[in-house]
Write a structure and sequence with these properties.
This protein is of the alpha/beta class and 148 residues long. It has helices at residues 23-34, 54-67, 88-92, 106-117, and strands at residues 14-16, 44-47, 76-79. 15% of the residues are buried.
Length: 148
């Protein structure tokens, strides 16, 4: 958010992990992040890395250790659920742990995201049916099983 005009991450910079994420998917992601040609220009993010299976997590650690020597300038962010900090990836990378506290007020963060997710030409997009021509939205409910 320090640079309002900088674009949001692209698909190649984010890996959304699930229990079904394969070692090959993680390997491709880490190779993009840790390759010498990336020179730390992008911030690569693994979301919910605590969801990876044990085998994939072990392979991820092994691969990270072998690849990180090829590049000294990389930006890798691993986000995990704090309730699952006992799982493999959070444990292995705990020496790099940084508690995440939002540095900006919620309203400012919402404005920033609204600027980046607003469709400029709504006639050409399905976003024209959403509030404020946004191409992304969150639907939530405090009650389970209400179809959202």
């Amino acid at each position: 958010m320090s640079s309002p005009l900088q674009p949001l991450p692209t698909f190649d910079e984010v890996l959304l992990c699930t229990p079904q994420t394969t070692a090959e998917q993680v390997e491709l992601f880490l190779r993009r992040c840790l390759s010498p040609r990336s020179r730390g220009e992008k911030i690569y993010t693994m979301l919910y890395a605590d969801e990876l299976s044990y085998d994939v997590s072990a392979r991820t650690e092994e691969l990270f250790q072998s690849l990180r020597h090829y590049s000294s300038t990389y930006h890798l962010l691993i986000l995990c659920n704090c309730n699952r900090e006992h799982t493999y990836i959070p444990s292995v990378f705990s020496q790099y742990k940084v508690p995440m506290v939002p540095q900006r007020p919620l309203a400012e963060i919402q404005r920033y995201l609204q600027d980046h997710y607003k469709v400029t030409q709504p006639g050409d997009s399905a976003a024209s049916v959403f509030k404020d021509n946004m191409c992304v939205g969150i639907v939530s409910s405090k009650r389970a099983g209400v179809g959202k």
